[in-house]
Amino acid sequence: MTHISAHPTPLISRKASALKGRIKVPGDKSMSHRSLMFGAIATGQTRISGLLEAEDVVNTAKAMAALGAKTTKLPSGEWLVDGVGIGGLKSPAGDLDFGNSGTGVRLAMGLMASTKLSARCVGDASLSGRPMGRVTNPLSQFGTTFEASEGNKLPLIIHGAETARPITYTLPMASAQVKSAVLLAGINTAGVTTVIEPVPTRDHTEKMLKGFGARLSVEVKDGARHISIEGKHELTAQNLAVPGDPSSAAFPMVAALIVPGSDIIIENIMLNPTRTGLITTLIEMGGHITIENRRDAGGEEVGDLHVKHSQLRGIRVPPERAPSMIDEYPILSVAAAFAEGTTRMEGLEELRVKESDRLAAVEAGLQANGVSTNSGRDWLEVTGGGAPGGGKVVTHMDHRIAMSFLVMGLASRIHTSIDDSAFIATSFPGFTDLLNGLGARIAPTP
Ligand code: S3P
């Protein structure tokens, strides 16, 4: 299996002077996938503005169309989804290709699990190495059957249950993807499906499904969230506006913190508290980040992030914060390299099963650039004091590893380079131009 794109595009990032300007980042990835999927099973036409048009989300749009829910992009940039109603999805004519996206395939499996259809799900080499048992196990309890590849991996064929049985399921790991897959299977299942979530994870599925009119309730018992959905009630199409992705804003945010003299504003960022762990952490480290113009936008709080260069201090990042910043540890590790003292991050076991083993990939990238690290199964320590740079980072088909180390190059003593930038397009099209517009110096490797 190859772990690089067919036409790898290496990039080099050189020491920059002050980053300045006002930018917007693309729409939130989690909300974009969900807008398309929930629109696909609602009745009527869902209209979406601000949809993230990155490869991961475009693959979800194609999958919904292949399952019978037409998706259209209007000249205005808005997207329409013609919903088929619960139980209305049909077997696709060909494979459903989810590319690099765990969220795409795992949520789509939930969406299909309680409807009588069959579909073969495939993905790229990274996605084909990731565990799918975490969704096939609970979905099997509904009566769904699977023909998976060795080790419960992709490619796999899902056969949706004709008459699904509702389940009560306690999440064995902190995963919004698994929670969402079970809740989505519950929508076309008669009776009440309950997910028990001991550690809270991002709650977009719950909030957005309620917005679509689902009969969903959340109760907290003994510290655990019990999320119940009553199946077989139609959802109603919605008009949705997707705000900027805090996980994408993380890159220019850390770039401004570590490049001396920087002062930038990142507009319209979603501030759902299940997603803001990185902002909390960077402020604790001494980062000058202020949230301006806080407002409500379609059920989510949003605001503009004003970020200035800061001398950061190393801290201990507690394990209970991990779900609220799970995609942000690579870029936090870069920030930590420029802090005074050591930063210790705990509760990182889920990083091992992302687009790459992110704990290993981050550590290797830091060490290649002269930064000292220490790690265990689920923790990482980064010694601050700055990064000499000069190393070439292996990105392992992982967009967040690629973007993190391009940011690092901007403040390293010499440059940092990455082996392949192609996967940045899975979540953040326009990343390089946007950062260069602020004053970054990211360019093709000579
Ligand atoms: C996501 C959940 C997270 C996150 C991913 C998006 C989602 O995965 O890493 O990028 O949209 O539900 P897990 O829930 O598996 O941790």
Q: What features would you highlight for this structure?
A:
4-stranded mixed beta sheet, 24 strands, 446 residues, globular, binds shikimate-3-phosphate, UDP-n-acetylglucosamine1-carboxyvinyl-transferase, Chain, alpha/beta, 13 helices
Number of domains: 2
Determine the strand fraction and express it as a percent band. 25-35%
CATH class of the largest domain: Alpha Beta
Which geometry do the CA atoms define? globular
CA radius of gyration is 21 Å
Commentary on this structure:
Helix content is 29%, strand content 27%. It is α/β, with parallel strands linked by helices. The protein has two domains: 11-27 and 243-444, Enolpyruvate transferase domain (UDP-n-acetylglucosamine1-carboxyvinyl-transferase, Chain, Alpha-beta prism); 29-238, UDP-n-acetylglucosamine1-carboxyvinyl-transferase, Chain (Alpha-beta prism). β22 (392-393), α12 and β23 (416-418) form a beta-alpha-beta unit. The model has no long low-confidence stretch (mean pLDDT 97). The site of shikimate-3-phosphate (S3P) has 11 residues, from α6.
In short:
The chain is α/β, with parallel strands linked by helices. Helices cover 29% and strands 27% of the residues.
Outline the secondary-structure elements.
Layout: E1 11-14, E2 20-24, H1 29-41, E3 43-49, H2 55-66, E4 71-73, E5 79-84, E6 96-97, H3 102-113, E7 118-122, H4 125-128, H5 133-141, E8 145-149, E9 153-159, E10 168-170, H6 176-187, E11 192-197, H7 204-211, E12 215-221, E13 224-230, E14 239-241, H8 246-258, E15 263-270, H9 277-284, E16 288-297, E17 300-308, E18 316-317, H10 329-337, E19 342-346, H11 358-368, E20 373-376, E21 379-383, E22 392-393, H12 399-409, E23 416-418, H13 431-438, E24 441-444
Parallel strand pairs: 2-15, 3-14, 6-7, 10-11, 18-19, 22-23
Antiparallel strand pairs: 1-23, 1-24, 3-5, 4-5, 7-9, 8-9, 11-13, 12-13, 15-17, 16-17, 19-21, 20-21
Helix pairs in contact: 1-2, 1-3, 1-7, 3-6, 5-6, 8-10, 8-12, 10-11, 10-12
